[in-house]
Amino acid sequence: MLTEFQQQMADAVAKLSSGEVVSFGDIAASAGRPTAARAAGHLLAQSSLELPWWRVVYSNGHLPPCNPSLQAERLSEEGVQLVGFRVTCSPRGRFQR
Known about the structure:
It is a single chain. With 97 residues, this protein is an alpha/beta fold. The chain has one domain (4-93): Winged helix-like DNA-binding domain superfamily/Winged helix DNA-binding domain (Arc Repressor Mutant, subunit A). The chain has helices at residues 4-14, 24-30, 37-46, 68-77, and strands at 20-23, 56-57, 81-83, 86-89, 92-93. The protein is globular, with a radius of gyration of 12 Å.
C-alpha cells in the first residue's frame, strides 16, 4: 500500500506522455515535496506499479545506473535525443528545446 505522497508521485509519473522527460525532483515537486527527489527515485526503483519509469532522469539529464541501456532505448524510441546516457533534448518536459 502506498502512502498519500507515494500515490501522488506515482500519479505524476503515470501522467507523463511519450517523449516527456522530467527529473526525480520534478516528480517530487508535483507531489508537493520538491526536496524529496530521492523518495521519487526509491518509489520507481522499488515499485511493482506499471509506470513509465524511463521518462524520469536526474536533473542534469543523466540516466540512473539501473538499466540505462534499456532506458536510453525507450527514450530514443520516443524521440528523445541522448549523448551516451544523458538526455540532451526531449519533445516535452524539462529538456524540451
